[in-house]
Each structure stands twice: as C-alpha cells, then as structure tokens.
# Entry
Amino acid sequence: KIPLVLINDTTIPITDFYYHYFLYSEFKSFPIKQEYTLKIEHGWGEANGKVFVPADFQILRPDRNFILYQDSNLYCLWQKAPNASWYFFTVYLSYSYIDTNGETKYFGFFSDSAVYDTFISYEKKVLFPSDVDSVKWGTGTINIWAMDGSTILPGAKENIRGDGSGFYNGANHSEERYFRIVAQDENPFFSAKDARERLIKRLHRKFHR
# Structure
C-alpha cells in the first residue's frame, strides 16, 4: 500500500518515488502561529505527529548596517518567536586577506547550530586565522529559523508517534542578515596609536623573516 500523507486533513501529493522511498511535497503557504497535525496511513497502521509553525521574529543584532571588522567577535541576538521551541542558526563568512608573509589568501567559515536561547556568539579566533594581517574584502550571511518539534541531532527524542518513527518540524524563516567584512584599519574606533603599532609589527616581520 502506498502511504497516504495528510496535514490537517489536507492530502499531500507524492512528487517523487523510488522503490520503497516516497517524497511528498506541497509548495504552498502554511499560515504561521497554527498547529499542524501530520497523519501517515500505511500498510502497517498509522503514524502521526503535531507541531506549530512559529510566529515571525526579528534579528536584533547584528543590525542592517553592521560591519564585521577584522579581529572582532560576532554576537547575534534575536527576538523570541511565539510557539518556537528552538532555533536553527547558520552563519557563513567568506573573505580574502593578506597574510603575515604578504601573500593573498582566502578563508571561508560555516557553522550551523541548534539553539535553545535567543543568542549565540563566535570568538574572533574562530572567525580569523592566526596569520591574518589585513582583510581585503568579504561578506557574511546569518540565517535563523524558528522551529517547533524535535531537533534532528544524535540522541534526540523522535516526535513521530504510533506505527512509525522519525522527526516532524514546523519552521519559520522570517529574516536573514547580510554584512561586510573589512580590515581593522577601517574601523572608526581604530586609533592612530593602534595604526602605528600595526605598522611597526609589519616592518618587524618584513625585516626579520
């Protein structure tokens, strides 16, 4: 028997299949702040689950004018989304830089996390390699999904009940954030004293290799 899948009594169509694998998809808008009951009828019985689609929320930090300066930490803060039990957070950085030997290099950083609060931070030692002398140019992206249901992590408790097992989630991706990554010298709080010390270090490395 081909499994029948329903969400709130609406049948979800099969969009792909291969032997005993079936893909069900419905590309339509599901209103937020509502509960959605999943029911799967198959030859061995019935499996089910319940989740909410969380409400909209906003990213508070970084703001839309944010610039990540070289050798800075990254701190992210967002509003609590009603009906969310956790958040799926991703950050991606990509930039070119001059290393301590004067060569151009490229660096990329990606991290995804299940977060049970409304903030997360990354230390500069994770975001900037130890051989960075000066960032040339780069961009970063932050994405946050407000989630309800079980996290898909090792040891997590499944939330499909009845004659079946697995994970069922409701998600709302209502906002994302883009920002630039620039050299420390471009920071308006980078003082003349800091600039002199940076120049001395560069000259020292140049003549003492």
Remarks:
- The radius of gyration is 24 Å.
- The first strand starts at residue 4 and ends at 7.
